[in-house]
Amino acid sequence: MAEILEYTLVFLVSTLFISGSVATYNTFSSWASELQFHEAFSVISGLATQALSNGSSRATIILPTSTIQCHDGSLTFSSKLSSASQSFSANCSFSFNLEGGAHTLAFTEESTQLSLSVT
User: Fold this and answer.
1) Average of per-residue pLDDT values in the chain
2) Is the entire prediction scored with pTM above 0.85?
3) Is 30 helix (H, G, I), strand (E, B) or coil?
4) How far from the centroid of its chain's Cα atoms is residue 55's Cα?
């Protein structure tokens, strides 16, 4: 009888430990994905701002599966988890659906028209 009680306690403690570990991992994973999304948007909006100042900008960055679009001066970056926008004092009209991975973004500005090419 004591052995059954001992095995039951060991099983319960192990189950609680595993459940706690899974919950902690899921929380951290979600936080890390959110941080990566905001970092990518910061780079994208920085490149757009640089292109408006200097005429062009280019960088290769790792992006999640996402969409980059700009209409009427509003640049939007969205993925299945989040979305972020920034307004610019330039006209723009583009939309790109991107698979996750490394992409080279090249922004150009001509006559207050912001353009983007993605490779």
Assistant:
1) 88
2) no
3) helix
4) 26
